[in-house]
Design brief:
Layout lengths: L12 H22 L2 H24 L5 H26 L4 H24 L6 E3 L3 H17 L4 H15 L4 E3 L3 H19 L1
Antiparallel strand pairs: 1-2
Helix pairs in contact: 1-2, 1-3, 2-3, 2-5, 2-7, 3-4, 3-5, 4-6, 5-6
C-alpha cells in the first residue's frame, strides 16, 4: 500500500491526532457557516486539545518527524490564525482597528509557527513565546465575551494585539508546567459555560 501511497509511511499516533485536529477545524467551518458561535468554540477547543496531545505523544514515544512538524504547523495556522479572522469578521464586524488587530494577530501567529519549526530540532523543555493554540483560545474567549456579554469591541482589539506580541516575544514558558495546566482548566471551564449558555 505504501508503494502506491508513500505518504502512508508517515502515519503514526501523533500525526493521527494532528489530522483529527484538522477535522475539528473543518467542523468549526461548518458551524461558522451556520452562524453557531457555540459550535465553533467547542470545535476549536477540541482542535487545540488535539494539538496538545499530538505534541505530548510525539515527545513521549520519540515520534517527532519533519512531516509531523510541517503538518502540525499547517493545521495550527488554519485553526489558530485563519479561523479567528473569519470569526471576527462574521460576529464582530469589520472596523479598521478591528481588522488591523486581527491581521497583526494572524501575522504574529505565522511568524511564531515558522520560528517554532526553525528551532524544533533543538531539544528544549520550554516554549519561546506563547504557543499559537493558547493565544487563539485567549483571543476567542474574549470574542465570546464581547458577543454574549456585550463587552466593548476595543477590549477584543487590545487582546488581539497583546497575545500577538506574546506569541513572538522572548518569554520562556516551561512545557507542561503549572501555567499550561491552569490554562487548560480555564479553557475547560469556559467550554462548559459555552455549552450551558
Amino acid at each position: 500500500m505504501k508503494k502506491f501511497f508513500p505518504v502512508l509511511q508517515y502515519i503514526n499516533l501523533p500525526n493521527s491526532f494532528t489530522t483529527l485536529g484538522l477535522v475539528f477545524g473543518i467542523a468549526a467551518c461548518y458551524f461558522l457557516i451556520e452562524g453557531s458561535l457555540r459550535g465553533i468554540f467547542i470545535c476549536l477547543f477540541f482542535a487545540s486539545l488535539m494539538d496538545l496531545i499530538d505534541g505530548f505523544f510525539a515527545e513521549k514515544f520519540n515520534q517527532r518527524t519533519l512531516f509531523g512538524q510541517y503538518a502540525d504547523a499547517l493545521v495550527d495556522f488554519f485553526i489558530c490564525c485563519i479561523m479567528p479572522v473569519l470569526i471576527v469578521y462574521t460576529f464582530l464586524g469589520s472596523g479598521i482597528l478591528l481588522i488591523s488587530s486581527v491581521a497583526f494577530f494572524c501575522i504574529c501567529g505565522l511568524w511564531r509557527l515558522a520560528y517554532f519549526n526553525v528551532v524544533a530540532d533543538e531539544k528544549r523543555d520550554y516554549y519561546t513565546g506563547l504557543p499559537v493554540p493558547g493565544a487563539m483560545l485567549i483571543a476567542m474567549m474574549t470574542v465570546w465575551a464581547t458577543v454574549y456579554y456585550d463587552l466593548p469591541v476595543w477590549i477584543s482589539i487590545v487582546v488581539f494585539y497583546l497575545v500577538g506580541l506574546f506569541m513572538v516575544s522572548f518569554i520562556k514558558l516551561v512545557k507542561y508546567a503549572i501555567w499550561q495546566k491552569l490554562m487548560w482548566v480555564v479553557c475547560l471551564v469556559f467550554v462548559l459555560i459555552v455549552v450551558v449558555s
